[in-house]
Amino acid sequence: MPRFNRNNSKEEIESRLIDLRRVTRVTKGGKQLSFRACIVMGDRKGKIGEGTEKGADVAIAIEKATRNAKKELIKISLDDLETIPYQIKEKYCAAEILLKPAPKGTGVKAGGSIRIVLELAGIKNVVSKMLGSRNKISNVRATINALKKISLLKKEKKSDKNKKQDEKIKN
Prior knowledge:
alpha+beta; Ribosomal Protein S5, domain 2
């Protein structure tokens, strides 16, 4: 019998490559070539994570980024409407994004890397706009930060609601 009881339920986590670049570092011995990979992972049910890593080879960079994305997986809360509850504007470095809720049947109207993040997160109806930089990695991080904020505000509202109910019961 195994010592540790691991959960064998297979989670269907998808990963998508956002960016793959060849980068160089100049040293006194010359230029050192490496590759940078950015990967987004999600299960289309509210889990999303992003990983960016460098490696000497493309395969190494992708593997490292995948491992990092698995570590960074976060859970966001989704509605029955399959959209976000309210409009949010988020800034990360020079990238600024705007996410707006959309009625059922609209789909994901987003460009570039924002679309990939929203689809892998499981949000089916949303409209977005890139207002600042068009940098793929910065836009991915801004989108994930916006989704985190929405989840945190939902949790705070629920806890405030529970506190008010407890106070009514005590009085």
